[in-house]
Amino acid sequence: MTVESTAARGRPRSAAAKKTAGGRTAGKPTGKAAGKGGSAPDRPEMVQLLTPEGERVEHPDYALETTPEQLRGLYRDMILTRRFDAEATALQRQGELGLWPSLLGQEAAQIGSGRALRDDDYVFPTYREHGVAWCRGVDPTLLLGMFRGVNHGGWDPGGNNFHLYTIVIGSQVLHATGYAMGVAKDGADVAVLAYFGDGASSQGDVAEAFTFAAVYNAPVVFFCQNNQWAISEPTERQTRVPLYQRAQGYGFPGVRVDGNDVLAVLAVTRAAAEHARTGQGPILVEAFTYRMGAHTTSDDPTRYRRKEELEVWEGKDPILRLRRLLERESAADEAFFAELDEESDALARRVREAIRTMPDPDGMAMFEHTYADGHTLVDEERAQYAAYLASFADHEGN
Asked: Does the annotation count 275 as an active-site position?
């Protein structure tokens, strides 16, 4: 069974299916053809099911049936995720957070992939997967602690099968591969998803993860959010071929999906996860999207990218295109949008309250979770630090 066959349901292929996100006819392979290294001029290079104008199109390998309720749910996910992200950015500007990595523009890539997973699948994120965290049931306020400097994560990874954020670029991809190798040996029927960016794809850790995953046939989906910029370096300075084609060199399939199309991302990720679960090994998904904001709040993107480029991508906004579909198909009315605005405002208020009432950590807590069974060196360091803190109290007493 190929990865495409798990998604396809025999729907007829339309002429529109030959078009990419930019409306151009493509002649490079994807899915089955990409995985085998052959050429298939009749298959579009980038999977798309929803155009920027909000029109549904078909793809020969990825059919997706949706109900109005499901479409409204995806729209709600993206709206609330974007509002949370905007609120966190504002809080950083007000001095409440030390740093914040915005996901602005990448909502479809994250919500589509997050909603494609089963509860028992396991996710290894970077530090920007706020939308995936939302899909996994992690309270948004818990994402703020690390960026405020009061904890090293804030949630139990085992509670939602969503690992802690990883700041080191690319290292989580190796962790995901090792975890996938382990669950495969356990005989578990699950998929492991490893998120990373286009910049991380140049890291040695990612190359090593690809090698191990291929050799051991690990059930891992490598999900690359290609947002076009690795901080200030454009993608063309990182690779000479489309990122999804790198998978061919390691011996597993790769597919590029329109990362601003939540429906296409949902269909492709769902098929990729099933590919991994059914013993077919790893697969690489490249979500072709765009970072509309700064890399983090310490970055100034106006120094390295043109305003015209941003304007082009604003026209491909993932939320706007789904709203156009909802309106086109009369799948949502004004009452729905009004209620969602109220829910969005309520979420923003809750986030502001949570950050401003977040307690500072106990300074001694840093020693509590280093080793599961304790360690003599940690005990010694704990005692030294306790004596150091006590010296301030002694000085004040004198």
From this structure: no
